[in-house]
């Protein structure tokens, strides 16, 4: 079940998605980290952020919508108080970075590059740039501008780019990330969504809209992983972390067949934080049943 993610050895392909499992060590309260492939930290910004006021996470049929607003302790406190947990937690830790300007991202990237316990960083590019309000991950030119500044800073750690699904041409965005030196891609972040309370006639989230995740987005994720794998990633040799609505092992297996080398889980943890263990063991049985020696043999093997 071991996976080579751009030179980083994962014990198995199951990864805890950013923002859904605490900073680093919290998941150890509910599951043994040595039984999962990796944990992605909460997205860290240069300055501390309180995030949006409640309600900022709501339950909807087939998933949830969140507008947490990147609440986090900020870089300085993260380095001092949270990052040391990466030394004791028995799995790979990937540092997630967010920001509202290129300079914000670069500052966190420099600090994470200097942290020996983070073999890779994941760039959450689903954030608006305060200069023009445009999201870095929704415009190829903005994505290129951002990545071309971050790439030279990451001299030691691998650069994983987490793509936004809120675009017309996901293959073009993936291509832009690969051109700018992405070592791996994560697909995908949440979809822009809105829920309304029909009694009060107000949006259910304080911010109005938020990001939809969970089973509602799974088949979109499968399609996007497949298109990106076939369109650019396979030929470039850039692995994909498939992410979106994985609740059961067959969901993870679909993403692998579509082209994902590893599979993230987020919303599932809010239902049952031990589900990643069930998915990992279910995948292992599936690999055996398919007559394969390694899960990697099944990456991109959909017979389309
Ligand atoms: C409550 C919540 C908080 C999240 N916070 C982050 C975050 O800080 N950074 C990030 O890159 N993605 C964040 N995400 C997105 C997830 O990592 C993931 O991309 C998305 O939820 C789709 O996967 P899922 O359907 O398995 O949840 C968050 C998702 C949820 C539900």
Walk me through this protein's architecture:
The protein has 304 residues and is an alpha/beta fold. The protein has a single domain, classed as Alpha-Beta Barrel (TIM Barrel), CATH 3.20.20.70. Helix content is 31%, strand content 22%. The protein contains 9 helices and 16 strands. It has helices spanning 75-82, 85-88, 102-113, 140-150, 170-179, 218-236, 249-258, 268-271, 275-289, and strands spanning 3-5, 8-10, 14-16, 38-44, 57-60, 63-66, 92-97, 120-124, 158-163, 184-187, 191-194, 196-197, 202-203, 209-213, 240-243, 262-265. The strands form 4 sheets. An 8-stranded parallel beta barrel has the order 3-4-7-8-9-10-15-16, surrounded by 5 helices. A 4-stranded antiparallel beta sheet has the order 5-6-14-11, with no helix packed on it. A hairpin with a 4-residue loop joins β12 and β13 (202-203). Bound molecules: flavin mononucleotide (FMN). Flavin mononucleotide (FMN) binds at residues 17-20, 42-43, 57, 64, 66, 68, 70, 96, 124, 162, 189-190, 213-214, 217, 243-246, 265-268.
